[in-house]
Amino acid sequence: MNEIELVSKAxxxxxxxxxxxxPSFPIVFSYPAIIGMLxxxxxxYVVEVSVGAKKTNEExxxxxxxxxxxxxxxxPCPTIVRMIRKQMPQYEKYLAYEVDSPMIATAKxxxxxxxxxxxxxxxxxLVKKLEANEDHPELNILVITYNDLSKMFEQANIKEEVANDxxxxxxxxxxxxxxxxxxxxxxxxxxxxxxxxxxxIVSGWKNCMEAIKDFDTNPKTRLLDILFCDGGCIGGPxxxxxxTPEERKKKIFDxxxxxx
Length: 260
Description:
The protein is α/β, with parallel strands linked by helices. It has one domain. The chain has 11 helices and 7 strands. The longest helix is centred in the N-terminal third of the chain and has 17 residues. The model has no long low-confidence stretch (mean pLDDT 95).
């Protein structure tokens, strides 16, 4: 049984689920309409993953502070983590394993606040399913993509309603709402200011291997902020949109500005 079937089954059985929406959601869904749609589908709570992203930033900043001699490759992107593990294991020593990804950090927050609920991550990434199942099975996270969710809405005949005053049950109106963009971590955490020339931002599968090799040989770079998809998570395969990369970025910024 795949994840969409597991989520559908849990909803049919009226189990308590908390939806965790990734920061790229405004590209595909309107806010606050998406909250009402998820509640109508049967989710008990809806949480913004930008909440967990804030925790990710805090953990990374603490790690850098406590280990001033060490250099790191960021680990929120499960595709990068797996690529290094399987194809470039000599660079695994740089991965910041001590830092939870936004999905994992959000799931832990949800487990604490809603202990009787199962977390369901909804985002643009297919490899998040492996991160949940292989790296953190103890959190029992189900993962579906935006494409999966759209199919579920279609099957349940749930459409967007303009008149909707729903809100996130847990939200984070700060800069972590731009986390889906390449460099979102560095910008939202303030690392571009504090580390300046010591931070390098890279996205796009064509650039990743070379960037990791360059990082290894360039001690001046202390942090490699790297995402596998072009432009960051806004280019994920579980996100179907006719919008250009620039239009997708605008959706992210517009959502943040409108909901400060």
